[in-house]
Amino acid sequence: MYLVFVMMTADKHLCRMVNVRRSQHLFFLLGCFLLILEQTEGFYVPITYVQSAVAKGGVCLDGSPPAYHMDKGFGAGIDNWLIQLEGGGWCNNVSTCLARRDDRLGSSKQMIKQLAFSGILHNKPKFNPDFYNWNRIKVRYCDGSSFTGDVEAVNPATNLHFRGQRVFRAVMDDLFAKGMSNAKMAILSGCSAGGLASILNCDTFSGLLPVTAKVKCLADAGYFINAKDVSGVQHIEQFYNDVVATHNAVKNLPQSCTSKLKPGLCFFPQNVVGGTKTDLFLVNAAYDSWQIKNILAPGVADPHGTWHNCKADITKCSAEQLTVMQGYRMEFLSALGGLGSSPTARGYFINSCYAHCQTETQETWLRNDSPLLSNKTIAKAVGDWFFDRSPFQKIDCPYPCDKTCHNRVFDGQANLDIVEF
């Protein structure tokens, strides 16, 4: 008996149509699987549930234990730790939190058991030369508050647990028990809502580590700005006000900000980074695709859908829409002013790709055709900055001048983050 297989990716056929005997097909499938894995430049890491967190109240929205995926360090990196916080938007009231309570963004019961690691999480020097042998951890996101919430009471009618900060602390405790208490170097990183979490929890994380450790933070697509939408309304500000109030996040936001501004405003990095003591690097697109879709042109501000095609593909934007987006870029660059000017304490890679999350995807982190600034990939820029080989503070020229973006939409986790206020 003969079996026919066709295996392919979006780029090309990896295993062409062939005939194989029944006794050979398992070996054929295994070979194809390994070839596909190599082509996608990633590998899979199993999930770990933090059962001990339940007793501490550090649980997901539905009360299930938090979780993470860990690939252990080896060789010279055995005492170094990279913590990557997952993104996935936020919930700002009981209704929106209920909407995600029973999916993977609110329950560890719904999370996949194997997660692909690539980019900054890769374990091969070819793909991740500076951090490949570190302990690399992806912390799953299931609280809806960028790991800042802490409400003691649980309404039995909804069974919603607003415990993001307790989740963060419980995961850190678990990692400390696995060796992070002896860390020599560490990075708190994250993508999207996880990138925002890495900023908001940066000094807290640094304070947990040994005083002798070299600790820095990295925010990927987490620099959300307080801007008006195309209808002239600041929907994002009200949304963040509601997030902070719903999750009682104020006590876990940086006091350097909350002592001066309303709590909701301290969910915006531009109001926080100036008071952040730990070194911080930003990777962000000036035309961040999530921000364009949800802050600049959310559905509520575009009832007739005139921005629909533009948001889906920047090459389909009209001249008028591009002018509006150029204005948004200028607002974004202005908001970077809060970072301060120290080239050693603050680094940034601000490109003009239409992108959201670029450190966990191999094609944007480090590959032959990756986006470049000053002829450096994101991986090279981050590595040089972290190890103090050279500072990096570069801002790209306006769209569409950067040809290293290939006019492709690097959207990372954007589809998971859509809020549509």
TrEMBL record:
One Gene Ontology term from the biological process aspect of the record: cell wall organization
Superkingdom as given in the UniProt entry: Eukaryota
Keywords linked to the UniProt accession: Cell wall, Cell wall biogenesis/degradation, Hydrolase, Secreted
Pfam families in the record: PAE (PF03283)
Cellular location(s): Secreted, Cell wall
Keyword Iron set for record: no
UniProt-listed InterPro entries: PAE/NOTUM (IPR004963)
Main location as per UniProt: secreted
GO cellular component: plant-type cell wall
Annotated EC: 3.1.1.-
GO terms of molecular function: pectin acetylesterase activity
Function according to Swiss-Prot or TrEMBL: Hydrolyzes acetyl esters in homogalacturonan regions of pectin. In type I primary cell wall, galacturonic acid residues of pectin can be acetylated at the O-2 and O-3 positions. Decreasing the degree of acetylation of pectin gels in vitro alters their physical properties.
Family: Belongs to the pectinacetylesterase family.
PANTHER family: NOTUM-RELATED (PTHR21562), PECTIN ACETYLESTERASE 8 (PTHR21562:SF93)
The protein's name in its UniProt record: Pectin acetylesterase
Species name: Lithospermum erythrorhizon
Taxonomic lineage of the native organism: Eukaryota, Viridiplantae, Streptophyta, Embryophyta, Tracheophyta
